Amino acid sequence: MVSLIAHLVTATELTTIESNAIMAGRGGAPSRSISSGRPAHWRARACGAREKEGLSWWLCRVARQVDPRARRPATLSRRKTARCVSRAHAPPASALPRGQRLRHVRGVGPRVQRRPCHCPHAPEMLVPPEMMAAQSKLVYQMNKYYSERVAARKAQIAKTIHEVCRIVQDVLKEVELQEPRFISSLTDYNGRFDGLEVVSPHEFEIVIYLNQMGVLNFVDDGSLPGCAVLKLSDGRKRSMSLWVEFITASGYLSARKIRSRFQTLVAQACDKCSYRDCVKMIAETTEVKLRIRERYIVQITPAFKCAGLWPRSAAHWPLPAIPWPHPNIVAEVKTEGFDLLSKECLALQGKNSAMEGDAWVLNFFEAENRLLQGGCRRKCLSILKTIRDRHLDLPGNPVTGYHMKTLLLYECEKHPREHEWDEAAIGDRINGIFLQLISSLQCRRCPHYFLPHVDLFKGKSPTALENAAKQVWRLTREMLTNSRAFEKL
């Protein structure tokens, strides 16, 4: 307490001496100020007031050293205190170049520079210059990685797609000649093929859309995770359906029966098409898979497009507490609908369900692509897939491109603002997705984005997931600690 009183007395004496010196001016004469045109003692009063503010702040600081619960004097607002501190340490504005305003903040350390933000609602942030330099290096490394590694991957995949689709189109023409109900929907739209999905640089999936689903009802009661059934409408005769021989006695359109018939037709078409020397059917599976030139695997899946519908199992989306995506985009996605695929469902394996053979797998491929439009989301996905192909193509295939796509959608919910997906933030987003991936691999669970009760890691080996978690952690640690990590990736 004695030291506190000594500090107070010293501060009071110093303030009094400085105020008297200012009041004295030039011999105490009430001279005029050239800059303001006011008497010098008016300016002295203003300076004295500022000194009182500075003294009040100083007294408060000393009092807090004795009692941390001591409050700031009521006569001194927070804004005035901040102004007093900044004036005490900031250089004059005339000494700085235009557009480079510096401000010193107590407790932060060196002077920091304001980082520009293009969002009108975002708070103004203060970022140290060294962090700005590191961020610029990261952006440069990411752009270089994209222009070299990602662009090369894209060019190679585009060339492969052109070759693969030409062979598949020829096979599907033979299928259509044998069975007109299986009409090929694989069409080239300026280099983009409708219904084609790239699983990996050597594996693709092509969806063939079937006709006349109108006489069937879509049933999604939640009893089949990730799946639904198609049932003949009430009052409709079995003969009114184009797929009459594939409807069960209970009135359900069997996905397995249609897939089995389609598999037989494709096997026959492979023997008749002009590319029969380089395309073979893959046996020991109920899926329709082709091996092309002994290098590429193509899965052809019959499907129905459900436009204007939205499944009950995904009715929770979007979450009301999350501002992403925009309501207009949500309406567009739900209007576009989803697909029902005739393929094996991993979620039903081991359940011995009587409906397993009749179930159709829910697919949101188009909806996911629509949500990833805007900002650098698509660019981020391309970088993630490239890293996956180069470093995470592990035994057991624990991490796929679809896992990356799913975690990217979750990252969009965590960072809903558009300015969080510009060029400068793409490195932070990728680091966040890799941290999510580590957590998912360690927990051995990766929920589907639209169907959270469906685990995308189901059927994966625990050992493969553990090894993948270690490898992802090595990559993440390298990206977080080495600013030039992308030169090695």
From TrEMBL:
**Which InterPro entries would you find in this protein's record?**
Mab-21-like_nuc_Trfase, Mab-21_HhH/H2TH-like, MAB21L/cGLR
Coiled-coil-forming residues are none
In residue numbers, the region (Disordered) covers 71-94
Q: Please state every residue range assigned to the domain named Mab-21-like HhH/H2TH-like.
A: 376-474
All copies of domain Mab-21-like nucleotidyltransferase, residue ranges: 193-374
Q: Which Pfam families match?
A: Mab-21, Mab-21_C
> According to its UniProt record, which protein family does this protein belong to?
Belongs to the mab-21 family.
**PANTHER family for the chain:** CELL FATE DETERMINING PROTEIN MAB21-RELATED, PROTEIN MAB-21-RELATED
Q: What is this protein called?
A: Protein mab-21
The organism's lineage is:
Eukaryota, Metazoa, Ecdysozoa, Arthropoda, Hexapoda
